[in-house]
Write a structure and sequence with these properties.
The chain has a seven-stranded mixed sheet with strand order 1-2-3-4-5-6-7. Helix 2 runs parallel beside helix 4 and helix 3 runs antiparallel to helix 4. The protein has 178 residues and is α/β, with parallel strands linked by helices. Helix content is 44%, strand content 24%.
């Protein structure tokens, strides 16, 4: 676990604790602190999503390199094919949304079964009324969703590169007629 003001994804830790949180953490029980450590260990190795514990010890889930950030609660609403709608609150950069607005996050998975499993896990985390545990579970599911989307994008790019190469080969192999 790392306490700093630097949010570079190069540190390899998906749990970020703002230095202003130190005072609040010092007032918490050992059990709470062990829960924070467990959260950090569960999130280790994430490449797309971080959980930031701010000065008020409020967990905020952030997608790296993106304006999207969420906090407060992560309530799964419904599975829609391979997607999962999750009610939360916006904590990202201002735009069409303001900080604290209700927001529907949409996570996409490789199968409906995976989306249903994510629904169950998020629902179970919410039953405990533990905002950190709920945020960690949401981050884990968002990480899976982001990894799936990155894989699909890479496959599309690879296919497009093959198509482009074949087009170039056709153009070079066969004469151009005007």
């Amino acid at each position: 676990m790392q306490v700093n003001d630097n949010y570079s994804p190069n540190f390899g830790m998906a749990l970020k604790i703002k230095s202003g949180a130190k005072e609040g953490l010092a007032k918490k029980s050992l059990g709470y602190l062990q829960g924070v450590r467990k959260a950090g260990e569960e999130l280790q190795g994430h490449q797309h999503v971080d959980v930031e514990l701010n000065e008020a010890l409020q967990p905020i889930v952030k997608r790296r390199g993106c304006a999207n950030a969420y906090f407060d609660y992560f309530k799964p609403v419904k599975v829609n094919g391979t997607g999962l709608e999750v009610d939360t609150r916006w904590a990202g950069r201002p735009g069409n949304q303001s900080y604290g607005d209700k927001y529907k996050a949409y996570l996409e998975f490789s199968s409906q079964k995976e989306a249903e499993e994510a629904y169950k896990k998020l629902n179970k985390a919410n039953e405990k009324w533990d905002s950190l545990e709920s945020a960690v579970e949401f981050a884990k599911q968002q990480e899976k969703s982001s990894a799936y989307k990155a894989q699909v994008a890479a496959q599309k790019a690879e296919l497009q590169a093959k198509v482009n190469a074949e087009v170039d080969k056709l153009i070079s192999d066969f004469p151009n007629v005007e």
